[in-house]
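Minutes, structural biology subgroup

Action item carried over from last meeting: produce the structure token record for Cationic amino acid transporter C-terminal domain-containing protein (Eucalyptus grandis). EB confirmed the sequence was re-checked against the source entry. Recorded below for completeness.
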Amino acid sequence: MGDAGGGTMRRRRACSCSKGDFLPEESFRSWGNYWGALKETPARLRDRVLSRSLETTELHEVKAQSGHEMKRTLTWWDLMWFGIGAVIGAGIFVLTGQETREGAGPAVVLSYVVSGVSAMLSVFCYTEFAVEIPVAGGSFAYLRVELGDFVAFIAAGNILLEYVIGGAAVARSWTSYFATLLNHDPSDFVITVHSLAKNYNELDPIAVGVCCIICAFAVLSTKGSSRLNYIASIVHILVIIFIIVAGLTKANANNYTPFAPFGARGVFKASAVLFFAYVGFDAVSTMAEETKNPARDIPIGLVGSMVVVTVAYCVLVITLCLMQPYDQIDVDAPFSLAFKAVGMDWAKYVVAFGALKGMTTVLLVGAVGQARYLTHIARTHMMPPWFAKVNEKTGTPVNATVTMLAATAVIAFFTKLNILSNLLSISTLFIFMLVAVALLVRRYYVSGVTKPADRNKLIICISLIVGSSIATAAYWGLSEHGWIGYVITVPIWFLATVALRVFVPHARDPKLWGVPLVPWLPSASIAINIFLLGSIDRASFERFGLWTALLLLYYFFFGLHASYDTAKESAETRAKAGVKWKNVEEGHVSSTTHAGPGSEAPAIPST
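Output recorded by EB:
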């Protein structure tokens, strides 16, 4: 009885949550410890800023924090359909009407091309990292290895924001198209509460229900989610083919005049908003840990899916603008009402069905990806380690999945699509820019190998590339008709990239698969992403700044101390095992902080 009772007590204890599941680190074991940790904040912050994780740490030690391995069940076929399913959704079916009618006119196809080029450059950067560091953390893990803990955390917060907002936007669009499918107006199933603030007073209970159903699929099995995804994606592709073929039978070339009524500025402003339509492919990189052969499967899956998506988008918007004059295209349901306008009212049901299929797969892949991001972030203890637990039976991160989709459901319940789409684009473009910078650092800097003079040249070149790109974007935003600024900023970007290619020696070549034309492709990715950021409205930047400030508050009071203690504990464990200090960290760490964040190398080595 005693044994049985003890076993029962142990089982209950295993199923419960305690402070140790969320804040198990030394700094949080007592108020005295916490106060002492806060007093060391400047020294600890310096350590976290200057320390970089090693690939071996991400691949082995950090993964071990989850307790159980994720199951390697995915192939390039799964990844390609995950990529298609993750991307083709609310963006093309919702925002196209708004940006065609009010932003770019028929030249919206060029907006999709610009956004597609930017996304493809980012895909190349993500692919090299995903092949070399196949872990669930995606861009968070890549940035931790190349740019250090602090930059990785800021990116991590925006990654989580990107997924929550993206999922919420798609869930609300799902409700609109569901209403259309049932022959209702898009807003019929939304409950308006006049006592709440504008843009937050249209409540959407159906979006919450959809999030709950998606959560169940994402929790049960990654492979099962994959099967559901590519079946739904195939149906979605067939519907897209129907829209193109049926729409072109009603084409009128006169509708393409004028082609660009809002000029070049309209094309690029629309590109910044329509980048939302390409968001989601980065979720595929988080599945590298569950891929059978990352070196082969990830490049085929990521690049192949992005090529299919870009071509599909361009053909779809060409078809739409040939069917109807741009100033008559509906803002909320452009494809459905375009068919109605040309006498094919029945086709709107096919369009609504296809849109629902697409948005369902976007939600599913987003749920799988966002949970894996949170899992890897929690493995480093920047977020509570409770989120890192992988369920032994399903092989999925249940805690992270449920938490992220609960946050998505809450945002979707209150917030309108136009608020969500701009804020989402800022977070995504910011992260993609950082990943491109990290790739340049990866190729041209290796601690202990790169000479100090070459390191300084690298810093100068990257600073000029980023600085000239910011200047170009700022000039674009502030000067509507000027051109002199571009004569200065564009050559600086070009010469900085040339200098990086000519004067800074390569420090590392990719082992399995690498981005071609380095440094040109990563440098172009930085420039385009920053340029598109310059086309986003001020209010969205204010919301982005507020979110970043909240992230910093959390980091200074919790995340910094938790990750510092975890790294210190890892270093001490290695020291007891007889591992020499220089193998734990490749460079100088302040003796004041006594910090040897396990298996980490300084972001800026001592000279």
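Discussion: The domain at 75-438 is CATH 1.20.1740.10 (Amino acid/polyamine transporter I).
Next step: EB to file the record with the rest of the batch.
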